[in-house]
Amino acid sequence: MARGELKLIIGNMFGNKTGRLILEIETLRQFGKRRVLVLKPDTDTRSGECLIRDYHGKSMEAFEVPARDPWVALRIVREKEAEAGSRFNLIAFDEVQFFAADSGFFRVVDELLERGYGVLASGLALDFKGEPFGSTLLLFGLCRSNNDCIWLTPLCAQCGAPAPLPQRLIDGHPAPYNSPQVHVGGKETYEPRCYDCFELPARPVPPY
Ligand SMILES: [Zn+2]
Question: I want to staple 43 with a disulfide (CB 3.0 to 4.6 A). Which of 67, 107, 184, 192 is the partner?
Fold first, then answer.
């Protein structure tokens, strides 16, 4: 079987990545008559259990893959195909940043492509420190041309310029560099910002 193709939908928060993913899946199912299995990491708790959800509230059913063991995705594909008695054409993943860079997720996607599945993947490129988030940017290595990747950039909440960075705010104030990945206590919010408006207190000073 011919190797499948990857389509990557990446960018900042509020770029409507999940909305774009849902649109692609709906189009493939309705007009392309493709069978698409939707998966997401089990650590995505914002969207609701076994759902992916865009920021307008539109949702779609998804099966959960352990973020720490993404190989389970291959087992879920096999189980769901056995239940349905037919093969999927495409496997879609939302929030791929929650699969850590060393989780093996890159190899899982590579294996799905090798087995002939198309793969759609959506994820956040950079974290609140402006640093690579999980597996998202690694998947670039599986794209064959720039046509395989859609980069979605919202506008800066402060000045309206293109905003590639997620500004983390705790009780309305910029969160410091060393704040934990999962915040406890206080009201945590995010807004998109450009590099000029992005604030990251206590960022380490470069050695040179
Ligand atoms: Zn700005």
Answer: 67
Instruction: Please state the rounded mean pLDDT for residues 157-162.
Output: 98
Predicted pLDDT at 172: 92
> Same domain, yes or no, for 67 and 134?
yes
Position 183 scores a pLDDT of 66
Q: Which residues contact 165 (CB under 8 A, 6 or more apart)?
A: 12, 126, 130, 192, 193, 194, 195, 198
Number of domains in the chain: 2
- Ligand 1 centre from 156 Cα, in Å? 5
Closest C-alpha to 37, from 9, 67, 77, 68: 77
Catalytic residue IDs: 95
For 175, the domain range is: 154-208
Q: How far is the CA of 154 from the centre of ligand 1 (A)?
A: 11
- The CA 160 to ligand 1 mean position distance, Å, reads 6
Using one digit for the tens of pLDDT, what is the confidence trace for 45-64? 888 899 999 988 999 999 99
Is 107 in the same domain as 184?
Answer: no
> Would 42 be classed as within a structural domain?
yes
Ligand 1 geometric centre to CA of 161 (Å): 5
CB distance 13 to 126 below 8 Å: no
